[in-house]
Amino acid sequence: MFPYIFILLSFAIDQSHSQAGTNAPRLALYPPPFTTTSTRFGLLVVITNPNATTGAISLQCQANLFSFISNAQNAVNNPPCGNPSIIATTAAPPTQGPGVTVDPNVTTSAPVFGTTTAPTAGDWGVLEVQALQPDQQIYHQPVKVSRNVAATESVREYVVVSCCTLALTQNLQVATLVVADLSRNRTVNWDQAAARVNIDTGTAYQNPAFVNISPCPCDITQNACDMDCCCDNDCTASDTSSFRGCISGLPGGQAAPYPEYYCKSAHVPKEDWFPLMCVEREYNALIGFYYAASTTIRNSEALDNKVASESFYSYSRPSLSTSQTTIYKKGTSVKSITAGVAARRVGTVVLPQRILSGQCLTTAPVRYLEDQQSDCTFSLTRDLCSSDSIFSGYFYLQPSSNPLAFAVQGSPTDDNAAETNVNYFCTSDFSGYVKNSSATIPNVTTSTFFNFALPSNTACLDVCGNYICEEGVITDTAEPTRGTRCPFDNGSTLPPVPNINGNTCENAVLDVKYEFQWKGTRIVKVDATVILGNVPLSAEVTQRYEAKFNHQYVANGTVASDNYRNVTTTYDRSTGYDFGKPLQSGMEIINQTDNTFMYVNTNRSQQMAVWDTGADGLCFNAGRRQIEFGNDVFSSCFVKLSLQDLNNCSNIRKTLVNRLNNLMKADKIGRLGNNNYLNSAYWINVAREDISAECTGYLASLDDATNNSRLSYEARGLCVDIISGIHLDVMYAVTGKLNATPIYEVIGSRISYVKSEWQLTCPKGETNACNTPGFVDTFEVTSSVRFTLVPGNRPERLPRYQDSKYKDICSQDVCWEAFIYPISSYYEGVDKDQVLVQVLLIIVILIGFLVFLRPWWYII
């Protein structure tokens, strides 16, 4: 394989294709004329307006070498393709020897052996080019060009590559010019190597602190001329005349440009005060930063002594620390331990977790005080339906009451396991886990709305579609259920391993939830919930995992009891929210008799939530995802509607408002992390945007237009003022500190709605396609949450240059550091004390000049 480089100018090709139908067919070679230093290169031949031809189009391409640029340009204008008689015209007279022809106007290469000849047809060649096939969407082919003989000296050659079509009514031709700047192939001739090398003679190097040891850095080839290296003494006048230019700067052996703060600097634009405050001479310590010359090493003993006397830096991949930690700290991996076995086996508690690449890491450790929630999708194969896979209950925590179980280690130095309770539930509802089940996924070619229907009793709905009757109405069925306690679960029995029964994998793990209760640096208790099910093999199963850490508040040495519900509290009531913890919300319950506050219903179904979609992204299977404090969220799901659905806009509006308000049903949000549901002072109201005007102001159907006239056909399938999204704004503030920890408290909240127009988009030019029974269009339903920190005091406005993210912007575009650059912190040249003395001396001289000469006397 030749290392050819093909450059596809997609813009030019697309431009050529876009002109098809308006221009005559033509050939083009890309890239346009260019210069190369290689004996091999590649081009691309493209045909435009392929509709004018049919079938395969054969191509003939050739490379011609010319001595003069004028002849090459003529060949480009009159492509020599198919006419070998004009190859290598105007050749130079041959000369003897292994060199090249020396002529002011001609520079051409010679064969490796024999006399130097003029350019011949065999110097450059083109590999066979495949035919173009527009009928098969093949509009271009590569053209590979290579030099058949090696260059014996540095030469510049003019190569014209031309291509033409064959067997067409009107053959097409195209040509381009490639200038090849070649150097001699410098392979080592081992026959000329010395028979013996004197290893006792060392090479003396000059001290780089006083002598420029690299006056010509671009001279990298010994006894040979390097291209465009004007300081290379091996280059002859003939070589330098063929250079495109000299390499600039230090690499080309030229002096480095002066820094901008030097008085000799020629940079532009210059500051107004540049001649006054600039550096005239600088004593830089850089010349002392060279290694001292080392002694000659002639034997292995001297080499070993030299290596032993030097210090080296070695990089090694960080490894997991094996040191035993004595306490749990934030971020430390939670350890597991066998509950009752004398020979302790210590491990790490893990849960599968999705990483940045989107893949799942099945052995991600659970880290202390770091909540995590993830899901992973696997294809349930026969190999995964086994005792050592992630679908096995043995992969996760087990009850500590079983002496053979792996439970959580309360502290890294404990010999006893923390109390670990695992509840196993068996479910037959796979709607939230198995996404390819025909029972839960509707046909996407038909209309798909919500897994919900408005009640037939319209008296329970207001004009917007909200419930006004008692609670206990229709609930969402898309939310996965835990099922019932498994028959084998008695609190200490280990779960059965997955087994294959026909085409079903029995006892497969679908959902795992850990709730850790911690106190200080210890884990006090763990409550785990594991959901099992009998899942069909080859199904795409989405497992869900969750781990939460709840603080066990201790008062007076005993576990505090939550007087609100007579259960153990998991929050300290004196503190506010923690970032990442659930946002407390609920529905206010009013005594219908005296219209007084009774309590706040904080049931999970009554709290604020956002859409939690599955793999299909449909609202039909979307569940509820809990809102976490401080985390902004935007989620959405999709509905698929047909023309018949969009003709009943009233039903769509009411269903959307009902489902969106059901998603964020709560009218109260807790101020702190733990709130008394019996005390209204712990809760704030949720302001909700009034949309009653939109609910009563739009048309119920197309027949309700003015004068009962039917809207035009183009307006069919259009619904305006659709409430397609819901947004929650939560404002919080720092209302105090506890042990130097800020107390975050919610001080306000508001719900707003997103309005849009839904219109069925028919394929262009196919107006009757929308009437097809199977034609549906996709519409988005959104939900979002935004948290805003409200400062305690109104902040003062900052100047533009301080508020900008660009720190180099100066006040009013005046940078005083640049005016006094030699004595500023940015200057790293001469020592500051020397610069200060010089500046003070200049100031004294300037003052003396003004005092003694008094130039202002002469000012009229």
TrEMBL record:
Q: Which InterPro entries does the record cross-reference, listed alphabetically?
A: TCTN1-3 (IPR040354), TCTN1-3_dom (IPR011677), TCTN1-3_N (IPR057724)
Q: Which residues form the Tectonic-1-3 N-terminal domain?
A: 203-282
* Species of origin: Magallana gigas
What is the designated name of this protein? Tectonic-2
Lineage, top-rank taxon, reads Eukaryota
Alphabetically ordered keywords of this record: Cilium biogenesis/degradation, Glycoprotein, Membrane, Signal, Transmembrane, Transmembrane helix
Q: What processes does the entry annotate via GO biological process terms? A: cilium assembly
Where does the record locate the signal sequence feature? 1-18
Membrane-crossing segments per the record = 835-853
UniProt record similarity statement: Belongs to the tectonic family.
Domain (Tectonic-1-3) spans: 327-549, 574-755
Q: Does the keyword Cell division apply?
A: no
